[in-house]
């Protein structure tokens, strides 16, 4: 089957030129760019006045962060021109281990988007994380034979790399031995430590938040993934990288993207649009999102409109607004005039499906589970949130355990609990948190990076138990409760991280969840559930909470609640 | 062992910048670029006022064309800054088959230059070629497991590729299946045919002789290897490619380089020098010769001064003259102040050594072997050389066989013969050639692309036999004979293509050979032995001679000598 796109302007990502050329596809490949006509094709599409551009590639995303299954994610992202993603199933792997990776591979098999997989390098993320699985280098090894596995995902354990820790180096060396890429994750690392990290074989980083940081990495041979995620939109600060000599060493990635953001604002197209609106050359942004992304992963034959390349092709109405009219994936028109052609996600093998859907193992919670043994006034470590940031402060203040168990709404001090939920070990830690502004009820969630235990913040123990139990009943998800009533909920039955619903449905449920935050008294500029999700991640400074206790991140040690 | 290069200016091939930075190596790797000092190293080299640049990579060379073994080639090229080459052992493979490839791998094992091997794709080059071996896709397969084998070498059989010929496509698909590169060779191919050729998976080309030709290829996704060989110096015509958006898709290669040219003018350094002298940015040329060359072959960790990269490092006195002071190869100083540290080439396994040194199998020749059966005057096809080109004309003219067997010095018509020499089949063809200007004697050579049979041009049959016999006695080589006396000779015992001697010795012998051309009456602007070497290559238009007969290259068929 030969299809001709005629009268369009081809975006040449090798040279940055706009070319008047006909594009001929045969089955899933581009076979000609130049002087072709109707006689050469079985089917011709006139795209006069439009642009022909390679499909966009997101070089780093955790699909789980959209709360969508790979199929539903693709359904939402394809109309935005995304035809390939490099997905790191770090979240589901922390819950389900190798089965989680297998699930993501099976659930994306044959869908009209190429979902490449980068193997999660840090499961669990730290020694404090009581995750659902441990993935060793040996566990990852079999995945390298899968044609969609491209390497080792973000190596967050940079202290381990710098110390040449045996286990993390084994994983890195395996990827290199297989001729694959190793993605980095080392925010603010610089100088000698950065040299040492890079020299281990780490090819890129997506954590750069300043041009200076990015330039050092490019000079040292890394590629920089410019992240424009929902919670971490770095593109504005990094726009100067869209000029040479930096641009050709950069990619555009999303890392974490919420369903509503994806639907309302777009995906990689949104980043290109923002660059164009800032006066940057949109073709440079397109090159970052196509050929240069493919090059970062050593992918051949992907990311360009050229003979022999995969026919992942976008027809754009314009370059500055990046309005996407048609999307061809592997030569098949999947989005036509902005509307998706129907397709079904693949069937995942039942055992695997069952495995990822029965990830929640914890006993029913009661009010008593959230009482603390302390009494009287004591100096305690309180996790204090920092507005619009994921870092927290270690606030040492007096807590009067005899008054409402220490909860003090006047000082905005609430209870926070993390309960192990993978293997029903009963491990649990209760502490205090300040900065949410919550005035009543409780919120619970099974999204709690990176080990995704059950995390609960509340003004009282009864609502904490009720919220936690609701999440437990759903087999994972989020719930907001006040006075024993469920204000909003978002079921995430797939490993406690992903919904079964479509992107619009998830976005709507999420919207209701956000609205319920206001009912709990949380001010509009605080995203409670999002912040909760990072409160148990002991790699972001300064004080976090895990099932093993409060963690002083800077010193990498457990601290007692009371001084 | 840690070595520090301090106070130098680093050429950053990622950005094109010059950076003041210290470079720290540990064993064979660069481990740091930045703020380091003596305390970090076991040994410090002050390179104040000098440049630190990655070792040069020649992306496409036939080492056999230097007439040097890999070890002697390295000895000659290292002082010119070449630390890696992608060698296509096409010539020796046409003589010795897979044993020839194995020999090149063994003879370059452990030498202070990384000799990557591209597997010869066309052995024999054409159906007319009676070469010493036939290499099928199955024969090439085992080589892909060798760490220095990077892919499939120049696919000269472009008509076969365009026709999707089964055997050539099998070779191409094997390389792609192994995730390796496929080099192209398709001079002047354009438009639809070029699309078809590229779509088969051909990643680059080194045959571009015009900017226009090169631009079409870059736009279609190929990389362009700018060839600056001894006989085909294309760089001057292609200098405009040293500007963006073309430069980053280009490499500098030599393809065929003679020992004297290598010694006197240099290698890749000479190409960079020429670019600089033309007013181009030498750093752009250096980027082509380092990082971008590595990228073309999907090589990671080679071609840059950056953490984790192989410590192939040049210290240059200046950028415009490209004066090379020191060369580090895998962290070891191998050239110091322009002088090579001593090292020995590896021992090749005796069976293999014997194999490549006993490639000449042909009976002793006699005058009678060069007589022709025709008599009287007949219209004959004569190979007419075109000055300074490898193409020939098909000149149809009267030959009087009764006068000196057809030789006519007034009209510059001599005899040319090609005799099979690999398997002693006795196959032989005698024809006529015009354009050498030879007035007496004969010249014989075992370098006769691509099948490397014994080729002889002469004014009389006795000298033709004498010259041929001298080459036979040497087990391969070149010889010039007049009146039964040997005027000059160049023994090439290694497969009839390579000498055992050093580059200076080979250059000197070659010089004597060139001088002997004058003794034969050949004018100074004709390179007899070089032209001879291409007279039996039936892929260059228009009339060539093989053991099977005269070949009309345009029609790809054997033509009888007489009309």
Model description:
Two copies of one chain form a homodimer. Chain A is built from 17 helices and 30 strands. Chain A has an eight-stranded parallel β-sheet with strand order 8-9-10-11-12-13-14-15. In chain A, a hairpin with an 8-residue loop joins strand 24 and strand 25. In chain A, helix 2 (90-96) crosses helix 3 and helix 3 crosses helix 14. The radius of gyration of chain A is 24 Å and the shape is globular. The termini of chain A are far apart. The mean pLDDT of chain A is 97. The interface between A and B is large, with 44 and 44 residues.
Q: What would the keywords be for this entry?
A:
30 strands; 563 residues; eight-stranded parallel β-sheet; homodimer; eight-stranded mixed β-sheet; globular; alpha/beta; 25% helix
The strand count of chain A comes to: 30
Instruction: Report Rg of chain A.
Output: 24 Å
User: What structural class do the secondary elements of chain A suggest?
Assistant: alpha/beta
Pair with the biggest interface: A-B, 44 and 44 residues
Poorly predicted runs of chain A: none
| Multimer state | homodimer
Shape of chain A: globular
